[in-house]
Design goal:
- α6 links the parallel β7 and β8.
- The chain has a 6-stranded mixed beta sheet, with helices on both faces. Strands 2-1-4-5 form a 4-stranded antiparallel beta sheet, with helices on one face.
- It has a single domain, classed as Rossmann fold, CATH 3.40.50.300.
- The protein is of the alpha/beta class.
- Helices cover 35% and strands 29% of the residues.
- The structure holds adenosine-5'-diphosphate and magnesium ion (MG).
- Adenosine-5'-diphosphate binds next to β1, β2 and α1.
Length: 222
C-alpha cells in the first residue's frame, strides 16, 4: 500500500478578493513505504507548498490526499494535528531547537505532546540521539554544538516519535558542504534501516542522494 498518494492536487493562494495565484497544478505523486525521494525545483516552484500539504500543515484547494490509507480531506483540524504528530517528523533548514534546553530534552519534546511518560521519554530520546551519533552529547545545549550536530539533534527529534515519514526542507541549507554531506549520509543510513524520507531541495546535486527525484517547475511536475 502506498504511504503518500496525491491525486490531481491543486493549490491556489488568494491574494485579493478577485486575485489568486496557482502554486500547484494537477500534482500526482505516489510514494511507497521505505522510499527515499527528493522533491527538487528552483525557488518559487512550489516545493514548500507541496511539503506543507504532505506534512498536513496546509490543505490543497482541490484534489485528493491519501496518507497511509486515510483520506485527509475528511478530517477535522484536531485530528489532523494528531495525525501530523504521529506520522510526520519534520526537519528544517534552521534546526528550530529550543536554545536553553539540553539535547535530550529537545529530542524528548514531541513525546510530551504524544502523552508519553517521563522515564520512557528520556529513554527514547537517548536512543534517538544514539541513532544519529550523538550518544556523548545528551546534556549539551544547542550553542555548545556545531551546526551539523544541531541538525543531528533535530533529526533525532524528528525520529523519536517513530513517524512514518521524515520530511526535510532544505536540511543542509545552513551547513557547509562537508557537514551537509555527513547529514545526507545519515539520511541514507536511516533509509537503509527502513525509514521513508522526503527531501526537499533546490539543489540537484543534493537531490541525487535520494533514490528517486520528483522535479517541480512552476507548480507542475516536469
Ligand atoms: N501564502 C502565500 N500567498 C501567496 N502566494 C504564495 C504563498 N506562499 C507561496 N506563494 C507563492 O507560491 C509559489 C510557490 O512558493 P513555494 O511553495 O514557497 O516555493 P518554493 O518552496 O519552491 O520556493 C511562489 O510563487 C510563491 O510566491
Ligand atoms: Mg521553499
Amino acid at each position: 500500500m502506498s504511504l503518500v498518494k496525491l491525486e490531481h492536487i491543486n493549490k491556489l493562494y488568494f491574494l485579493d478578493s478577485d486575485l489568486s495565484f496557482q502554486a500547484l497544478k494537477d500534482i500526482n505523486v505516489v510514494i511507497q513505504k521505505g522510499e527515499f525521494v527528493a522533491i527538487v525545483g528552483p525557488s518559487g516552484s512550489g516545493k514548500s507548498t507541496l511539503m506543507n500539504i504532505i506534512g498536513l500543515l496546509d490543505q490543497p484547494s482541490s484534489g485528493e490526499y491519501i496518507l497511509d490509507g486515510l483520506d485527509i480531506s475528511k478530517l477535522k483540524e484536531n485530528k489532523l494535528a494528531q495525525l501530523r504528530n504521529k506520522k510526520i517528523g519534520f526537519i528544517f533548514q534552521s534546526f528550530n531547537l529550543l536554545k536553553r534546553t539540553k539535547a535530550i530534552d529537545n529530542v524528548a519534546l514531541p513525546l510530551i505532546y504524544a502523552g508519553v511518560g517521563q522515564s520512557e521519554r528520556l529513554a527514547r530520546a537517548k536512543k534517538a540521539l544514539e541513532e544519529v551519533g550523538l550518544a556523548d552529547k545528551l546534556n549539551s545545549l544547542p550553542n555548545q554544538l556545531s551546526g551539523g550536530q544541531q541538525q543531528r539533534v533535530a533529526i533525532a527529534r524528528a525520529l523519536v516519535t517513530n513517524p512514518e515519514i521524515l520530511l526535510a526542507d532544505e536540511p543542509t541549507g545552513n551547513l557547509d558542504s562537508k557537514t551537509g554531506e555527513e547529514i545526507l549520509k545519515l539520511f541514507k543510513t536511516l533509509n537503509k534501516t527502513g525509514r521513508t524520507i522526503i527531501l526537499i531541495t533546490h539543489d540537484h546535486h543534493i537531490a541525487d542522494n535520494a533514490k528517486r527525484k520528483i522535479t517541480l517547475k512552476d507548480g507542475e511536475i516536469s
